[in-house]
């Protein structure tokens, strides 16, 4: 997986920078967090070409941030428990973060979300 930063901002003001992991292969995308230890605070897994996720087999809850093709947050789902599904048809990418992150950082729809190379 690629590593970099995910920067979330609103109206030009910085909200939070996450330590980002990004899937590079289909195998990584399909495995997601099932093959990785629990995410740390301020860490996010950016899944490209992804508008739906499942938490089957997960041992902990997640917050989900859906990003559209214009790098804007087009949907959020908080506290998705294990053995659930979630989707956002407008999304081209999904960022998985630990449960509570959306409210902790005040992330909301319309915020900008950029993968820093």
Explained architecture:
The structure is a single chain. The chain is mainly beta and 117 residues long. The protein has a single domain (2-116), classed as Jelly Rolls (Sandwich), CATH 2.60.120.1140. Helices cover 9% and strands 48% of the residues. The chain contains two helices and nine strands, in the order E-E-H-E-E-E-E-E-E-H-E. It has helices at 26-31, 101-105, and strands spanning 2-10, 13-22, 43-48, 52-54, 62-67, 73-80, 85-87, 93-98, 112-116. The strands form two sheets. It has a seven-stranded mixed beta sheet. Strand 5 (62-67) and strand 6 (73-80) form a beta hairpin. The radius of gyration is 13 Å and the shape is globular. The mean pLDDT is 91.
N-to-C SSE series?
A: EEHEEEEEEHE
Q: Could you tell me the number of beta strands?
A: 9
User: What low-confidence regions span 5 or more consecutive residues with pLDDT below 50?
Assistant: none
Figure out the total of helices.
2
The strand line-up of the biggest sheet is 6-5-8-3-2-1-9
Supply the CATH superfamily name: Protein of unknown function DUF192
Mean pLDDT across the residues is 91
CATH fold name, please?
Answer: Jelly Rolls
Largest sheet: 7 strands, mixed
Q: What is the domain tally? A: 1
User: Regarding CATH, which class?
Assistant: Mainly Beta
Estimate what percentage of residues fall within beta strands.
Answer: over 45%
- The helix content, as a percent range, equals under 10%
Radius of gyration: 13 Å
CATH architecture name: Sandwich
Inertia-based shape: globular
- Counting helices, strands and paired strands, the structural category is mainly beta
**Termini Cα gap:** 13 Å
């Amino acid at each position: 997986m690629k590593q970099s930063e995910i920067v979330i901002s609103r109206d030009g003001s910085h909200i939070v920078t996450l330590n980002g992991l990004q899937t590079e292969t289909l195998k990584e995308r399909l495995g997601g967090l099932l093959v990785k230890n629990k995410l740390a605070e301020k860490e996010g897994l950016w899944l490209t070409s992804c508008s739906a996720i499942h938490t089957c087999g997960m041992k902990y809850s997640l917050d989900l941030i859906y990003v559209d093709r214009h790098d804007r947050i087009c949907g959020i789902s908080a506290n998705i428990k294990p053995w659930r599904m979630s989707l956002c048809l407008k999304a081209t990418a999904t960022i998985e973060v630990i449960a509570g992150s959306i409210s902790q950082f005040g992330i909301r729809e319309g915020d900008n979300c950029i993968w820093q190379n």
